[in-house]
Amino acid sequence: MRIGVCVLHRRSNAATARLMQKQTKRGDAIVSPLRTTNDHRAALVEIESLMAAEPATQDGDRLDMLVSLVEAWEAKHVPVDTSDPIGAQTDCRSRLNRH
Fold it and tell me: What distance in Å separates the CA atoms of residue 90 and residue 84, rounded to the nearest whole number?
C-alpha cells in the first residue's frame, strides 16, 4: 500500500483539478508538482499537519490537492505488491515510521 493511499482522500481527481484551476485564477497559494523524493517527503509532512483541516476551507482544499499529488507520485514511483494485502499494510506502516 502506498503512503498516500493510507490517507483518506475526500475529492475526486477531477474535482481537485477544477479546484486548482479556480485557485490559480484567484491568486491563492499554488501547490508545486512533486518531482523528487524530497518533494514527496515534504508533501507528506504537510499532509500530516493538515489532517485536521475542515473540508471546503483553504487548508482542507490544500490537503486535497497535496493528497492527489502524492497519490500520483506514488503510483509512478512506489511499487506495490497487491497480491499480499497484509504485506502491503506492513509496508505502508514501515514507510510511515521512516518519515
Answer: 10
**What are the residue ranges spanned by the domains of the chain?**
4-98
Q: Decide if 62 contacts 29 (C-beta within 8 A).
A: yes
pLDDT, tens only, 13-52: 566 566 555 555 555 567 788 999 999 999 999 999 999 9
Is-contact 64 10, C-beta < 8 A? yes
What CA–CA distances, in Å, run from 87 to 25, 64, 91, 93, 98? 43, 27, 6, 10, 17
* Residue recorded with cell 497484509: 86
Query: Does residue 63 contact residue 47 with C-beta atoms inside 8 Å?
Result: yes
Task: Dig out the grid coordinates for 94 from the structure.
Answer: 514501515
pLDDT greater than 50 at residue 61: yes
| Separation CA 74–CA 61 (nearest Å) | 20
